[in-house]
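SAMPLE LOG
Freezer: B-3
Tube label: C17
Construct: single chain, 151 aa
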Amino acid sequence: MTKPDSTVKSLVVAAIRRHSSDMKAWVDTRLWDEADPAHRARFADVALQDGELPILYSVVTPDDWTMFTSRAVEFAHHGVRGRVPLEAVEDVRAGNFKGYARQESEHLALHARDGTVFQCPYRTGHESMGSLYAINTLLHVGRGGRTSGCS
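STRUCTURE (predicted):
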């Protein structure tokens, strides 16, 4: 049975809060409900489905960002926008999420069931915990139903 969007969002937010540190210091990654309205405006043209809820976003540049919702991952990579429904995701590769060698951003490689790989930009270091726990929790409790985590 599919969980209501509000339940999915609550579970994802709780997982992010439980596993993340120093969230107030995050600059480019935010829980949607705590975002500055000016930052929210950046996503005004993201077309969410009826009842779908935004949860968290991570911005690398104006042309490279990822937004996690209760049903999908919306992203822009080099200005090219995309949407990956959670049920389409087969595997996730997180890359250098810790930011070794002073790498400030990375891409979540979302491997779809049809073989397509989507590159979803996110911030590394402490901020990466938001993106990583968002996708892991979404795939576990949301519409993806997958139980394994990022690798």
